[in-house]
Amino acid sequence: MLLPGVYTIQKKNGDILYRSSITHKARHISLGSFASEKEAHKAYLEAGWLLRGSQPAALADYPSHNCYLPFEKWVILLNFRDNGMYFKTPIYLKNKYFLYYLDAATQLKFAVDDLFYYANHKIMRRGGHLFVADFGMQINILSRYGIKNFAVPGRDYLFANGDNTDFRYENIIVINKYYGVQKITENGRCFYLSKIHIHGDYIIGKYPTEIQAAAAYNKAADFLQEAGLKKKFTLNYISELNTQEYQSLYKSIELPRKLQALQFS
Description:
Blueprint: E1 6-10, E2 16-24, E3 27-34, H1 37-52, H2 71-83, E4 91-93, E5 97-103, E6 106-111, H3 115-119, E7 124-126, E8 129-134, E9 137-140, E10 157-159, E11 172-174, E12 181-186, E13 189-197, E14 201-207, H4 210-226, H5 243-252, H6 257-260
Antiparallel strand pairs: 1-2, 2-3, 4-5, 5-6, 7-8, 8-9, 10-11, 12-13, 13-14
C-alpha cells in the first residue's frame, strides 16, 4: 500500500512514476511527478501544510524550507487558500489587480481584465522577452497593448511609474504604435518621422500626425514591392480611418523623388 497522497503510473518503457495529489475544498489538485514514493509523500504533506497548516505559510517562507514542491505550486496553493480561487498558473490575487510569478524573485502585475487570459496561458521568458503560446505561436505579451515586436522601450513605449514589471493598462504608454513611424520632438514641436528599411533606414518624410506617417510607410512599401524589391513588408492597419478615408489619405501622400527613382531587378 502506497503512502498517503501517492499513486503510480507506468510509463511506456515500463518504468514506474510516482505522482502526488491532494484534495482541498472539493478540488482535486495534482502536485506533480517525483522520483520516489517518499518524495511524492513529502510533497503531499507540504501541500497539506500550505493549505491547512496551523501556522500559515507565506510565499516569503519558500527559500527557508527544504521544499519538495516548486515555487510555482506554492503560489497556486496559497492563492487558493487565501482567495478561494484555483488557477493552474502562478497567479496571486490582490485588490483590483493580480501578481503573476515568473519565479520567487520576479513578479509581474496585471489588471484584473487580464485574469482569465493568464489563468489559461502560461508566461514564458527567453532573454528579455515575455511570451505565451497561443494558437500554436509564440505571442509577445506586449502585443496585448498594441506594442509591436520591433518596439524599443523608452522610444516606442514607456512604463509610466518606471516599473517594467507593471503591466496594468494605465501604466503602459504607447508612443509609436505603427511600423516605420517614430515620434520626434524638435524645438518644442512634435512630428512623426516615417522611414522604411531597404539597405538601412530610408527616410520617407516628416508628417504632422502618426496616421499620415503610417500611411506614408504603407505607400512606400507598396511602391518598393512594385519596383521589384523582394522583401515582404508588414503594412500598418489604421483602424481610425474607414476605407474611403484611408484611400483618400493614401492618394494624397507624395513619396520623395529619390525613393521613386529606385528600381530593383
